[in-house]
Amino acid sequence: MILIAKIVSIDCNLKCDYCFYHRWNQNSNRLMSCGTLETLIKEGCDYSPICAQFIWHGGEPLLAGLKFFEKIIEFQNKYRKNGQNIVNKIQTNGTLINEEWAKFFHSNQFGVGISLDGPKNLHNTFRKYPDSDGSFDATWQGIQILRQNGIIPGIIAVINSANVIFPQEMFEFFIDSELKNLVFNPAMIKDDISGLPTGIVAKPTDYDNFINRIFDLWLKKDDPKIEIRQIKSVVHALIGGKYRSCRFKSECQKYPTIECNGDIFSCDGDEQNKNIRFGNIRQGLNHIFSSEIYKEYRRKIQRLRISCLDCQWYKICRGGCTRDYCSRSQELPKNYFCEGMKEVYQHISDSLKYYKILPL
Amino acid sequence: MEENTENEIIPEVFLQALKEVKNHRQEDGWSDHTDWGDKSYDVWSQSV
User: Fold this and answer.
1) Total CB pairs under 8 A between chain A and B
2) Which of A154, A172, A203, B47 could lock A181 by a disulfide, CB 3.0 to 4.6 Å apart?
3) How far apart are CA A233 and CA B17, in angstroms?
4) The domain A2-354: what is its CATH number?
5) Who's near A297: CB < 8 A, 6+ residues apart?
6) Which chain B residue's Cα is nearest to A48?
7) What is the mean pLDDT of residues A53-78?
8) ipTM > 0.85?
């Protein structure tokens, strides 16, 4: 179980055009209380006595301040069990990182993920401050400070209608910058009225061309230190491994989101299920994960994929990410990227057959 | 699909994937909510 904590709720110092949080009508200037944080960490440590995993998320989690993060370590030391591993990961836009943050992350072994959408011109297309200034320079500075302190961050790039047509530029930018742990998540923001993806979202054919091209470049470069999550997940699944990426696991219930008041929801990327509240951390994780509403959510995730069961690729993608499902009214929701991703699975499968790793 | 008549050697990235699958190092899986980078921090123990 991985607990995803939105410690400042959806508050952020940026206002990216594709961020679905802007449409959520919530108050700002919120911070998880010390009491809720302590309960969250105690529950997380109790529920996973061998390895407790926390993802500190937002909004922009660094808005919580360094003292809040020092509390995290204090509580984890208090509730850590004998022999228990505790893993902390943070996903940040990087703009607020300074020497103090970098030293903290390094000394406390935080895994750091940065949101970076490619080179400056592509990143700044949608990732902006509220005054519309691009955020690339501040993010880039944050990455350099991390590096100077011995941290090589992973990167999540949101693939959208602007950068999807530049796979080679994107790949070369990241690899030339020695950023070799990459995730290429497609943007997904839906029109309130039609329920369909807006113009910021990459077209499925463009997204599959992007991933296929990235795969070809990855194979040509042939550097095992380059980890591209979607590609490696598909390769692993095709050769009989387990599913690495949550988007290919169909187990959304295993990634609950904890709001700053302790309320526990289904994955917050799953916009159509954003109102599914499992309970509050104070009720205890054992109680929540055995509740009927939690079990029903699990069944709902499975039902959504019922039309996928006959697909030859179902064993690889398990229906993909739930947030990518959309429909016109009266139609059953379908994964927007499904048809395009089938091309990706075929392309990677063909390559594995070419090298006789898979039978012809 | 083109045929590999020259018996080209298997790329390192595929060999690495085969090795990882064989060693079952990916039991925990990943969440696409973050990419935490440097794997020296990574913990591959089984989730509970």
Assistant:
1) 157
2) A154
3) 10
4) 3.20.20.70
5) A252, A253, A266, A273, A276, A278
6) B48
7) 95
8) yes
